[in-house]
Amino acid sequence: MASFLGTDGIAGPAGANTTTEPAHHKAYQGPTHMLDEHYLTPAAIASVEIHGATNTRRSLLDHVIKPLVADPAGSNSTLGEVLDRIGVATRKLSRFDIFKEDAFNVFISEAKKSETALPSDKAELDVSIRVKEKSRLVFSAGTDFGNAEGSAYTNAVIRNIFGGAETLSVNASTGTRTRSAYNATLTSPLNGNPDLRLALDVLRSSTQKPWASHEEQLTGGNLRFSWLSNRNETHTVTYSGVWRQLTSLASTASPTVRADAGDSLKSSISHSYTRDRRDNPMLPQSGYLLRAVSELAGWGPLQGDVSFAKYEVEGSGAVPVSIPGVKGNTGISIGAGFRCGALYPLPMGYSLTGPAQPSRINDRFQLGGPTDVRGFKLGGLGPHDGTDSVGGDIFAAGSVNMLLPLPRTGADSPLRLQLFANGGRLVALQNKGGVEKEGGKRPLAMGSNAVFNSVKSAVGELGNGLPSVAAGVGLVYAHPVARFELNFSLPLVLRKGEEGRKGLQVGVGINFL
Amino acid sequence: MASTGTPTSSSPWGSLQIPRPIQQLFNRFPLVTYNANNLPARTQALTSSNLPTLHVFSTDEDALEGLPSFNPTCLKWQTLLRLTKTPHRILPSTNHASPTGALPFLLPPQSTSSSTKPIPASLLSAYATKHGAIPLPSSSSATKEETYLSLLTPIRNAFLYALYLDPKYSSLLDRLYIHPSSSSTLVRKTLRYQLRSAAAASILQSRSLHPDSGREQIDGEAVFAEAQEALEALAGVLNEREGWFFGNERPGEFDAAVFGYAHLILSFMDEEKGLGRVLREVGEGAIVGHWKRVKIEAGWDI
After folding, report:
1. Please, what is the end-to-end C-alpha distance for chain A in angstroms?
2. What is the ipTM of this complex?
3. Residue B175 and residue B106 share a domain
4. Does the N-terminal or the C-terminal CB of chain B have fewer CB atoms within 10 Å?
5. B45 touches chain A (CB under 8 A)
6. What is the domain range of residue B118?
């Protein structure tokens, strides 16, 4: 069974004049050398057939193929343009992630000319695309590396459930810190566009947070809408409703953690933006990354138990260093990264001037750790209540590093020697406007002026003195799945209570500062 | 690890000594140490107090005034701390915050000792003896105390039954325990379900039934009848001896426990019928009289 699409009826794949059947990568890249001379020949597509899309709805394929056949340029299109358009369409099909990548075959043949056509007319082409669908049900199990955590998972994926490239993924995992996590995600492309996706996921997890002596249990769901812009930037808009339960406190838990224990519902809408222009995300040697996340929780119709605006930006970049006399890639590069963020407490409801609740530990930022500000323990920077890292509302962190290839292995190996220095500040809001009632009893909520003044003075506090800094040297190994670092570092500047690490530190993760 | 080797080095790293010059070099770091970061506003508002903090079920407003908790067990210990004039303040909290999984617990102020290990309810009477201005009455024979304590179980069951399982008090349950946890309807529904199941399981267990056998198995009439008997027994004891339980000079732990239930039943349950009526009527108001006396002793103007 196949889905047939076309304007001029159905033509078989027989009578192939031009058959391109290279490896899949080339097939999408359009022209081959043989075709170069015919590049400027006028051409149009007479019909397109797709074979092998047994379980796929025709309407989905229509979205991709229709523009191919519609020929907006009228009669002026050349063979080169036609081939480019076919390339675009097949790439689009492969991004649905329902067809096997290495089984794409594109056959192009000249259509039989109708008797009425003029002999000098442009070439009419029949296009036949053969695909193989990926298996609809896939089970997998394995191990995973996230930032500073390893886990084992089992996963079931049902692809193309309704024939419109919808995917349901059910995942269960347990890890070094995540005691258990279950989630199910249903994703669907919108309007037949693989770069425009709507995803709904439900999750339940329980994660240990040893840096603040507690365990956080999450139950909730997200509705995510993501798209890829023309400039290859990823945008995601998410509505998220999560019931957080801060529980199972350690016997040594600090008063701050005890005061924040219990339930809260976060209902928030967030937008994230990513522009990734790095040559290799695990070992960037050139290019840059920009990321911005903004979140609005609790305010207005969002309801919930917490209300704040949160903004976080991250930028990092690397430049290769060339040495005079050494040709090509030396494998040496200098990189830098910067991150900062702020949490601004808001009143509940639609008011802008009403009293706002100060932030809770599970909404505040944490800073420090082997994949973050190296040379500090996880959550090692910022305010500490006893040994608990209680987080802060405003932070800024930066790093510089130099990557050098090891003498024997050379520039192409994934191993590097790293020299780095990084530092940051994490500051919590103080209730500046809080009028002390008699007996030292302070009200919890802050007025809008108090919030503003607190944020202002916290931002000022960022620049008070040197940031907390650590520097060191280490080895980097960039595996395609994750980046491994073994660093030796010493803290240079600290604040009392902050937990630096003298000596060796291992970092495994995907995002490094 | 094999522990058959020499006992001096249990791990291969244990024997590794850092050379002195390097150790000295390491000790120079960090080069600069500033003052500690200030704690977040929420911490400062909630936990900065020189007083030991008793974490109980309460509301923000009640806690500021030191008013009675709305949970019988919390109220018992709060009353005991007041009776012994043990300095403390109270903070609204949840079971999640407690080291035992149930409120109340006491958190000593941070300044006095480096460790701020919480004191669970089971050790509070020892704490009150140590830090209170007024000593607790010396405890009488253990068997006597046990008999009296067993009288509280049916009262507890009836109180749980009324508050959690009787639809008449569902709005009270919401106001006291459900609404403060979250403003979300879904979360509230889940919590209500969990609390009701837990209350049913607890009643079933104390009535020697399997905790999972379902709340239909609970005979509300029987639970109430047992509570009535227990209240009558307690009132009888009080009528014989005008003052406090066990014939003590001053009110003690058991008086505080009875007050915990009596105060909540009198505050929340009407006098027309049920627990509210029985408690008011037994022994010609003996329990109410006791409640009034404890209130005065504890210095509550309520």
Report:
1. 51
2. 0.85
3. no
4. N
5. yes
6. 46-130
| A461: CB partners within 8 A, 6+ apart | A394, A425, A427
Residue at B212 is within a domain: yes
Say yes or no: B51 and B161 in one domain. Answer: no
Q: Which two tokens stand for residue A165?
A: 């490239």
A103: left (phi over 0), alpha (psi -120 to 50) or beta: alpha
Q: Examine the fold and report which residue of B81, B101, B130 is the final residue of a domain before the chain moves on.
A: B130
Q: Quote the pLDDT of residue A390.
A: 94
Cβ atoms within 10 Å of A288's Cβ, excluding its own: 17
Tell me, yes or no, whether B154 and B279 share the same domain: yes
Q: What residue segments make up the domains of chain A, in order of their start?
A: 2-130, 137-509
Peptide bond into B30 cis (omega under 30): yes
Number of A–B residue contacts, CB under 8 Å: 174
Residue B11 lies in a domain: no
CATH of the domain at B105: 3.40.30.10
* Residues near A375 by beta carbon (within 8 Å), at least 6 away in sequence: A422, A470, A471, A472, A487, A489, A490, A491, A500, A501, A505
Work out the minimum CA distance from A256 to partner chain B, whole angstroms.
5
Residue type at position A238: T
**Residue A86: pLDDT band with limits 50, 70, 90:** confident
**Fold of the domain built from segment(s) A137-509:** Porin (2.40.160)
Residues B169 and B116 in one domain: no
Instruction: List the single residue in A440, A446, A497 with the smallest CB-CB distance to B37.
Output: A497
Q: pLDDT tens-digit profile of B199-230?
A: 999 999 888 777 777 777 788 888 899 999 99
Q: Does A491 touch chain B (CB under 8 A)?
A: yes
A173 and A150 Cβ atoms separated by less than 8 Å: no
Query: In Å, how far is A253's CA from the nearest CA of chain B?
Result: 8
Domain count, chain B: 2
Q: What are the tens digits of pLDDT across the range A149-162?
A: 778 889 999 998 88
Q: What residue type is assigned to position A82 of the chain?
A: V
Which residue type does B174 have?
D
Helices (H), B217-269: 220-240, 253-268
- B29/A502 CB distance under 8 A: yes
Residue B12 lies in a domain: no
- Which positions in chain A touch B43 (Cβ < 8 Å)? 255-256, 259, 385, 390, 428
- Which residue, chain included where needed, has tokens 């240990």? A208
